[in-house]
Amino acid sequence: MNLKDFYFELPEELIAQEPLAERDASRLLVLDKKSGEIKHNTFRDILKYFKKGDCLVLNNTRVIPARLFGTKKETGSSIEFLLLKRMEKDIWEVMLRPGKKAKTGARFSFGQGELEAEVLDIVEGGNRIVKFYYDGIFETVLDQLGNMPLPPYITKTLEDKERYQTVFSKHEGSAAAPTAGLHFTPELLQEIQQMGVKLAYITLHVGLGTFRPVKVENILEHTMHSEYFDVSSETAEIINSTKAEGGRVICVGTTSTRTVESIAEADGTIKPGSGWTDIFIYPGYTFKVIDALITNFHLPESTLVMLVSALAGRENVLNAYHEAVKERYRFFSFGDAMLII
After folding, report:
1. How much is the pLDDT for 210?
2. Fewer Cβ in 10 A, N or C end of the chain?
């Protein structure tokens, strides 16, 4: 299976640079995964596609201000840190720019010296393992000095940082938002529950590896990044009872999908637990848990396009993407949504 099989032309002006004034005012393209039929709606119309007894799985991770700007202590030269993964209490895997300035043992300072870091190791791919030094609570210091890590294709300043958080965000740890969840409002979630649809929350801390391009022609040679997840016993019970009673499990976003599919048993049931997942889902994969998916429109040749192609078929997905381009849908993090049923 080749990388070029997942390519499509995307005009740059369709990349959404800011969120709409109302979260649920985004457009919604509905794709029937069996027939390939396409319908056009607004996101708040999604209610008509839910049924009593369904279960909606949402990722309640919260984005941390993971971008830090500082200086190298020895030279005073500028450096940018992007926190990717917490390894231990004060030890993180980070991406640095410019990376060549960060040899093992190099030290960096942020703010007025409230936060310092030392490079402990250089890992495959060029990221660094660093240890942070500070007084007080790390999260408090990070909140004071850090910036929201918007994806590189968003060049416009985000006025309200909460618009890069879902309304149900709870557990801090993500380097990027689970963007399919950005369309929901508290009122819409309440209406969904009143219909008899159950809400199940999982946590997967999204790493920036999600946005990294696939660089190998044969996608089977691609190595996925790992991300931390946590699934409670309550969530496992909701999902398992939904399956047992004949309801549909509808995942909100590829992050929720990767989480439940990572811990699924052969019979489609899941067990509570936490850990790291590097699951790579591409066409040919047999889904064990999810029946439907709410997702945004993704980058050409990305692992996310491969995942949705595994669920709905590559030709159906690419046809839907061509239709979305033709109809001037907004793409990526602050863009419009797709429902695959």
Report:
1. 65
2. N
Residue 254: φ, ψ to 5°: -70, -25
The domain that contains 289 carries what CATH number?
A: 3.40.1780.10
Average pLDDT, the chain: 95
Whether residue 97 is found in the same domain as residue 137: yes
Q: Are 226 and 255 in contact (CB under 8 A)?
A: no
pLDDT in tens, 188-204: 999 999 999 999 999 99
**Residue 46 belongs to domain spanning:** 3-63+159-340
- Whether residue 141 is predicted with pLDDT greater than 90 in this model: the reply is yes
- Tokens (6 digits) for 247: 């309801």
Which residue spans within 175-289 are E strands per DSSP?
198-204, 227-231, 249-252, 273-277
Q: Please tell me the pTM assigned to this model.
A: 0.90
- 3-state DSSP helix/strand/coil % of the chain, to nearest 5: 30, 30, 40
What the block records as the tokens of 85 is 């993964």
Which is it for strands 115-122 and 107-110: parallel, antiparallel or unpaired?
Answer: antiparallel
Residue 150, in any domain of the structure:
no
